[in-house]
Amino acid sequence: MKPGVNMAEEYTKEILLQLVRALSKAVSMEQNAQKFYAEAAEKTKSPEGEKMFNWLSQFEESHEKRLTTRVNDLLKHPLLAGESIPDLGTFNVSETKDLDVAKIKTEMDVLKIALENENRAYIFYQKKLTLARDEPTRQLFEDLSRDEEKHMKILDDQLHSLKMNKLYKDFEEL
Question: Are the CB atoms for 37 and 57 separated by under 8 Å?
Answer without folding.
Answer: yes
